[in-house]
Amino acid sequence: MKQKKRILGGFLMFLLVIFLYAPIVYTVVFSFNNTNSLTRFGGFSTRWFEKMASNDTMINGIIYTIVIAVIATFVSTVVGTLTAIGLSKSNRILRNCVEQVNQLPMMNPDIVTAIGLLMFFSALHIEKGFLTLLLAHIMFCIPYVILSIMPKLRSLDPNLAEAAMDLGATPIRALVQVIIPQVMPGIISGALIAFTMSFDDFVISYFATGNGVNNISIVVYTMRKRTNPSINALSTVVIVLITTGLILYNVFSAIGQRRREKEEARLRAQAQD
Length: 273
Prior knowledge:
By secondary structure, the chain is an all-alpha fold. The protein is built from twelve helices and no strands.
């Protein structure tokens, strides 16, 4: 009976993996298709990558997407980290109120947030373009950073910063050298979520942009009505970029973990001596 359950579980897991990754593999394979067909593979070719490289709209979409995602991630991570640390030192009523407000952008449908931003920028007579798109991305990324960092702050000793200052550290030094290293896993998680949300967003970006400033999702949306295998090439480039980033992150995390383990072992050996 247990053997049958194990086989059934393995089969279901196999189906799940196929369901999740088959579209990605399909997109990568047909990005090298020699024909215009999206269903029949006619031979290996890089013609669609060449067309993508010569398409200014696609190249600008990639550039805008990466630039906005990087800036929005940096700003939202800094603001979200400082906000979360400040909330951890606030009274319970204020902290609970701000946390509830912080959840509103995540609970709201994207279309509601997008229309709200559109009306807000229009009311202030701000011309939609790169700046409005960047501000919109920063706005909806900050709550995710705060949400990622708050659990780590709750697990810290509340007297940690005071102990550091009693030993002679300034408030800034206590923040940078004591508090932030302790919550660094939460900061990294928040930054990764913010980058992913910014890189992937379509609805809010569509309503908040203008003047030819389009990210990848908007570029793909505008090309949806005609058969264009260059979209597969663009998707493959995005997949390669994201996969490379994840591999580098895991490699550096493993190296850092190994160094910490060696340092802990060295300190234990010194303590025993």
